[in-house]
Amino acid sequence: METPSDRHEYPAHWEADVVLRDGGTARIRPITTADAEHLTSFYEQVSDESKYYRFFAPYPRLSAKDVHRFTHHDYVDRVGLAVTVGGEFIATVRYDRINAQGLPATSPADEAEVAFLVQDAHQGRGVASALLEHIAAVARERGIRRFAAEVLPANSKMIKVFRDAGYTQKRSFEDGVVRLEFDIEPTEASLAVQHAREQRAEARSVHRLLAPGSVAVIGVGRAAGGVGRSVLDNLKDAGFTGRLYAVNQAFEHDVTEIDGVPAHRSVRDIDPAAPVDLAVVAVPAPDVPEVVAECGERGVQGLVVVSAGYAESGEEGRERQRALVRQARSYGMRIVGPNAFGIVNTSPEVRLNASLAPEMPRPGHIGLFAQSGAIGIALLSRLHRRGGGVTGASGVSTFVSAGNRADVSGNDVLQYWYDDADTDVALMYLESIGNPRKFTRLARRTAAAKPLVVVQGARHSGIAPTGHAVRATRLPYATVSALLRQAGVIRVDTITELVDTGLLLARQPLPEGPRVAILGNSESLGLLTYDVCLSEGLRPKPPLDLTTAASAADFRAALEQALADEKTDAVVVTAIPAVGEGPSEDAELAAALSAAAATGPTKPVLVVHVELGGLAEALSAAASTGPNAPDTPPQRATHETASEEPPPPAEAATAPRLIPAYPAAERAVRALSQVAKYAQWRRDAAAPGKVPEYDAVDEQGAAELITELLAEEGDPRGSDLAPEDARALLSRYGIDVRGTLPAPGPDEAAAAARALGYPVALKTTAPHLRHRPDLGGVRLDLAGEGELRRAYEDLTQRLGKPAELRPVVQAMAPRGVDTVVRAVIDPAAGAVLSFGLAGAASELLGDTAHRLIPVTDKDAQAIVRSIKTSPILFGWRGAAPVDTPALEELLQRVSRLVDDHPEVVGVALEPVVVAERGLTVLGASVRLAPPPARDDLGPRTLPAAY
């Protein structure tokens, strides 16, 4: 007889693409009744030993009954998942719900027995670990909370999979079998394991793209010019260390090479003994599917698709892009693009320029990621050439221009840069952030190890660029920017600032504080620098004017003295050329600055020079000759000598630190300010805050109330709670909201005031007047009934009838500062806590601080102090300071409520009056909805093919 679970529809949302340990991709999907042939073929390729480990006995082949059992699932109590590559099974996993006696069961039984089988050729790739994450997520969705597995003691690989997953296990041994039992709810340990595996796998997948042993360029023309031929020429000119192949199906059969590069009509024609690691695809979009199929069958590991005609061209192109990603992933390949500019790796071991950039960048330690080809060109050009504002050439480690970023994204490249020894500074130009929650997590981890500078284009348009299909966020740009700064990201507004800040980070140490010494031979330029420092939040000392008569020796002595001062964290040197100065004077000054900078290797030095010509050339040639002190950063010299050929590896590795020179004080100081704030973030991140435990928190009671309220509403979109329900829920977390009494008429208002006790406030609750005291909808400090009745009459005469205004009476709170506390669940960014002062001025100026939830004690302190109007809370103009510790506690209680209960998708406390002692919440609203999906708690997956 058919049961309800037998009628469950195919769960398409369980399908997912994953990156495996070696960087290849695979697809995980539910097994269906149509998979009998796939399952039989898969089983035939599994070794006898693996079969024995799975069934505890010799089991050479599956019977028809076995095949039926393993392909027929109800997707509730019996579930099977398969891992496929090229459409063929490479692994399977199955769970069966069981009761306490280990017998087949149905819900509400919450335990299941799980078993895996991985094809021998794919063991060691992390397949079983990925499958365990996915089958556990499926089981949780179906109400299963615990797994049991029986494993033979000799099956050490499978035991290790369970042991390393991060779950707390109970292990027993009986009848020659190891029995493992463990809860499958995500834990801090299991998430840490999952994230570490994700990082290694995704970093490896990018490494396979950036460090191939061989490259095939598909779409190479016989004549010079054209995209494919340009990429091939650029690869050759860069000195790619691997093998190159030119491919074009239009080649005549007698064409065997193009400019010395072996030529073939198809990648399938390349010697089977020679692997092809990377293919650059430069053929018209309609021809790409055939090329991808050939590459997949040939075993190509990754693709760079420079072809256009995809999502950027409209809906038809978007569907073509989705099909491209699905097809490539089915073969285990990752894609940069389509519509990509290309990728670059300057490592001497690789020397890859698989891009449209005609010049190979100099090797260095700056990683670049750009979603725009045009911006990528501009970034490479600015870092490559001399001049252009900040002088001197700077080297690049790797460059990725992702185009439509249908597959490989900024998140993947961040994973690679995190432990890439050749990348010390990461610069990113982003036009969209597909997964802000993940990007923030990765950025925080990366920024703790190396600086990450980001400029975001299209930030004010509110829409993603054509070709970028991303989840929408309701958060404004300013909020997203604040959240990224919280994660340690250095946010800048322009490409110029991106380069200015990146070069300073690449060349100089981080300052230990905001104290800046200014010295130079122009009093005016020094004063300008001083003013900019104040505007940018730095603490400058009065400029030291060396006068226009200052010699190189004077500059050196002043710089050495400034660096020796314990109260100086950084030095800005300002210089203007003297009349008649020539190259020799510039060289002398550059050498003097270099020698002086070497005496303070832990403090950054910047140069502001209004005429970059002569001094810039000299700075490019100057180098420090002093020995490096032990356990200190390398001594700084000024800019490296620019040349057409990059320096050899040894020279690049031992090159001294360089002094950047800027053409304007504001550019230098703005870069220094960004770097100083990042340095402070690094110091703060080294000692993270804690999420404290508070009294008067009833988590279980709140959960029961939420379940009850959601059941009453029954609206899957969620709803706003009635005021009394909101107060009841907030009280479970120790948040007391001062009550109100309705006042539909003056008599009722008077009765309410007598019940509450004078003085009272009379205010409207109509949506268009709520929290708008500037419109006259609030009357305070009403000391008696007569005053209350007069206020009521005036209110209704001026603003409307009582039925429209919905007046209420509320007891007066102690005087203080009116503030606002909010929390929202954004579908893309996650849970966000916001704080600011109440009132139209704060809203108009956008003076609101934001933090991701959960909020620590340090976060709470920082959010209160980070708004521009925070001095009002701390005794501005002689006023008494208010109780900020009580405010910080309230912020953390709200954070705890939202973090504990994902059904709470919105909280607004307004106003919160913070007095000298204590605070009062005068208004509150809470919105509940079924909990949104948390992709950060689920198994590792690649984004869906947009």
How much helix, percentage-wise, in residues?
25-40%
| Number of H/I helices | 28
Structural class: alpha/beta
Distance between the termini: 41 Å
Query: What is the arithmetic mean of pLDDT?
Result: 89
Cα-atom radius of gyration: 33 Å
Strand content: 15-25%
Taken from the alpha-carbon principal axes, the silhouette is flat
- Strands of the biggest beta sheet: in what spatial order? 1-2-3-4-5-6-8-7
Q: Report the major sheet.
A: 8 strands, mixed
**Quaternary structure classification:** single chain
| Count of extended strands | 39
Low-confidence stretches: 1-6, 386-392, 623-655
Explain what you see.
With 946 residues, the chain is an alpha/beta fold. It is 35% helix and 21% strand. The protein has 28 helices and 39 strands. The strands form 6 sheets. An 8-stranded mixed β-sheet has the order 1-2-3-4-5-6-8-7, with helices on both faces. A hairpin with a 2-residue loop joins strand 7 and strand 8. The longest helix is centred in the first third of the chain and has 23 residues. The radius of gyration is 33 Å and the shape is flat. The two termini are 41 Å apart. The N terminus is likely disordered.
